[in-house]
Write a structure and sequence with these properties.
The protein has one domain (7-25, 41-245): TIM Barrel (Alpha-Beta Barrel). 41% of the residues lie in helices and 16% in strands. It contains 11 helices and 8 strands. Strand 7, helix 10 (221-225) and strand 8 (232-235) form a beta-alpha-beta unit. The longest helix is centred in the last third of the chain and has 19 residues, at 182-200. The structure holds 2-phosphoglycolic acid. 2-phosphoglycolic acid is lined by residues 11, 169, 174-175, 213-216, 234-238.
Length: 252
């Protein structure tokens, strides 16, 4: 079995101007030093990508975006293309975050198109999946995830999927302060890894990183990261301050 390098990713959502993002990124680079154990990624708003890209230059921190369109150019007012993100220095892009699915009508089908476009463009998609509270209460967690993963990855050749990252983010845990317990998260991560084994093969199951997201904080990160199938964290609130994000990066 190969070892997967953990990834600690910060999703800044619709927070921070360019100047604010630059300040936080510079502070973070200082705090984590030249050789943090895990890989570190920041996903600022589009308008701060350039400032953050400069702030992290020469550091181990990598850049990501929070969303994109699937076409590479065209008459799509208000949209940003994968090629533009790549040229702006992004290595990663979040796809299908639950806020985009719930508030901006993203579907498994648009998520699928975006994942394909990201992979074609040389970006690593961070493909977000997760059940709502009522789905969990109705014992629908696994069927919901089956559909999200199968539809999101439909038609993708396993040969291009080695850059894929999956983020399991239970909707009920996002921004609520109520994280999944390490056992609850591990149960789902094990299930997702088994899905990958069954549908895409053992090599990819060993390789693909599965992040947990939803109220990850300095106080719970170590226990989550100790689980065998949790390969990192996608962090909203606790990534906004450099101090707390640096504590997450130093989870060991
Ligand atoms: P949170 O957000 O850490 O604030 O719960 C996680 C996310 O939305 O990715």
């Amino acid at each position: 079995m190969q070892t997967r390098r953990p990834l600690i990713a910060g999703n800044w959502k619709m927070f921070k101007t360019g100047a604010e993002a630059e300040r936080t990124a510079l502070e973070l680079v200082e705090l984590i030093g030249p050789a943090p154990g895990p890989e570190v990624m920041l996903a600022p708003p589009f308008t701060a990508l350039s400032a953050v890209n400069e702030a992290i230059a020469g550091s181990p921190v990598t850049l990501g975006a929070q969303n994109m369109h699937w076409e590479s150019r065209g008459a799509f007012t208000g949209e940003i293309s994968p090629d533009m993100l790549h040229a702006a220095g992004c290595r990663y892009v979040l796809i299908g975050h639950s806020e985009r699915r719930q508030l901006f009508a993203e579907t498994d089908e648009t998520v699928n198109r975006k994942i394909k476009a990201a992979l074609t463009t040389g970006l690593a998609p961070v493909f977000c999946v997760g059940e709502t509270e009522s789905q969990r209460r109705a014992d629908q967690t696994f069927p919901v995830l089956d559909k999200q993963v199968a539809d999101g990855l439909q038609g993708l050749d396993s040969g291009v999927l080695n850059r894929l990252v999956i983020a399991y983010e239970p909707v009920w845990a996002i921004g609520t302060g109520l994280a999944a317990t390490a056992d609850q998260a591990q149960e789902v991560h094990r299930y997702l890894r088994k899905w990958i084994t069954d549908n895409l093969g053992t090599a990819l199951a060993d390789q693909i990183r599965i992040l947990y997201g939803g109220s990850v904080k300095p106080a719970n990160v170590a226990e989550l990261m100790a689980q065998p199938d949790i390969d990192g964290a996608l962090v909203g609130g606790a990534s906004l301050e450099a101090q707390s994000f640096a504590q997450l990066v130093a989870y060991r």
